[in-house]
Amino acid sequence: xxxxxxxxxxxxxxxxxxxxxxxxxxELGYAAxxxxxxxxxxGVAKQTLYNYFGSKRALFQAIVEQIxxxxxxxxxxxxxxxxxxAPVLGDFxxxxxxxxxxxxxxxxxxxxxxxxxxxxxxxxxxxxSGPDRVVSDxxxxxxxxxxxGHLRIADARISAESFMxxxxxxxxxxxxxxxxxxxxxxxxxxxxxxxxxSHCVAIFLAAHAPR
Length: 211
What we know:
The protein is mainly α. The protein has one domain: Tetracycline Repressor, domain 2 (Orthogonal Bundle). The chain is 74% helix and 0% strand. The protein has helices at 12-28, 35-42, 46-52, 56-74, 85-100, 103-115, 120-129, 131-147, 156-177, 180-188, 190-207.
């Protein structure tokens, strides 16, 4: 069973719904998962489910946004514009890697990739509220660091995309193609994940060092 963690600030019913829905989506796929089954597994009335989330699409989008909130809530880049890049990017990179290879994230990515051709509008919405949002926040931070003279950034958006790409790299493909034992091994090797994220940060900082 996939472990699903949500912040304690979420109300108990909403939290139960999102946990049940995440597990059901990963188990059956987006198309086969029904709101009726989500309500049953969450132990709430169907009307309660629709009171919180007006549609299955809205529920799925909320799950993806929650994953991004876990990253961006812990590393508020907009609040760190005055902080030098080395510690900020180091913390950001390590948190991102942890979320990227988490079983819940991998499961949701797999099902979204599988259903994207059938639900292109959903895929685009999720992309905007998830990965694209992270890149936009990072680009604003990098632009602020350029203005402060801490980094040399010709195009903040491209630099943000490049940094995120280096973090994903072959590791994301390996995680996506791994069975559960392999995925568990990736998550358990925290020392290697630390070295991997530090390497990506070091290369980025060297490439964008002020002249």
